[in-house]
Design brief:
alpha/beta, 8 helices, binds NADP nicotinamide-adenine-dinucleotide phosphate
């Protein structure tokens, strides 16, 4: 399975790509700029040495066409434009949305949530791609890029996953557990992304208050 990361040159996409390449998956870094994508690929190749590594850089459109499972890692202000650019290349695929609606998209604070008309960023993705039979799954919203990029250590965070397509959700749960330390939690239908996305500004708040970068969340008692 090829995992294509749309906006894979940013912190979150880069971190996920590192972990998935490390796990032996076939990864595509997508970008608006092919040179930027190739540069990110070279950085990953330098960080993870290995002959069998499967990673390529492409434009977002090519990445969506080539990938079997797509992961969207762009800031909220880029969500709509990025999805429109890949819409015609995403028919029938799984799209994992990691977008968190933070006030930074309006020039505000990173520890404040912005309410969206659709209820959550993931539901907004579902709305934009509704005529393309894309299976939207919300995941990776609460896992910090700092912990993903710190490849010498396990990620100490559960992955809270929601979606309306059970098979797609199971696929993404398996994918998330390729990251050492991550446990996937099935959090029910996509509308629960409204709750999950709101945890991230809280974690950012805790990072700021404690001068750390690795705050995460664990669900106990399951
Ligand atoms: N960073 C984290 O720790 C973290 C944790 C959990 C969730 N998230 C969520 O994951 C998403 C990505 O976060 P990030 O920190 O990786 O973001 P980022 O570094 O600011 O941006 C990611 C990529 O998005 C593309 N992009 C940026 N602005 C754009 C625009 N105006 N139009 C089109 N594309 C644009 C860029 O790719 P190209 O220039 O190569 O096209 C950029 O490298 C966000 O929604 C964030 O809330 C982040």
């Amino acid at each position: 399975m090829k995992v294509a990361i749309i906006g894979g040159t940013g912190d979150q996409g880069f971190g996920l790509a590192l972990r998935f390449v490390q796990a032996g998956l076939d990864v595509i870094i997508g970008s608006r700029d092919i040179k930027k994508a190739e540069n990110t690929v070279n950085i990953i190749k330098n960080m993870i040495k290995g002959d069998e590594m499967q990673i390529q850089g492409m434009t977002n459109e090519e990445a969506a066409e080539e990938g079997d499972l797509l992961i969207l890692t762009v800031p909220l202000q880029a969500q709509v434009v990025s999805l429109r650019s890949i819409k015609d290349h995403s028919e029938g695929k799984i799209l994992v949305d990691a977008t968190v609606p933070l006030e930074t998209c309006l020039g505000g604070k990173p520890n404040r949530y912005v309410d969206l008309w659709e209820g959550s960023a993931a539901e907004r993705s579902a709305e934009i791609l509704k005529d393309k039979d894309v299976k939207i799954v919300s995941a990776f919203n609460n896992i910090s890029s700092a912990s993903l990029i710190n490849i010498k250590e396990e990620v100490k965070c559960d992955c809270l996953i929601s979606g309306d397509h059970e098979d797609a959700k199971k696929e993404v749960m398996k994918l998330a557990e390729k990251i050492p330390g991550v446990r996937s939690i099935d959090c029910g239908p996509l509308e629960n992304a409204r709750i999950i996305e709101k945890i991230t500004p809280l974690l950012i708040n805790l990072n700021i208050r404690n001068r750390i970068k690795l705050a995460g969340i664990r669900i106990t008692g399951l």
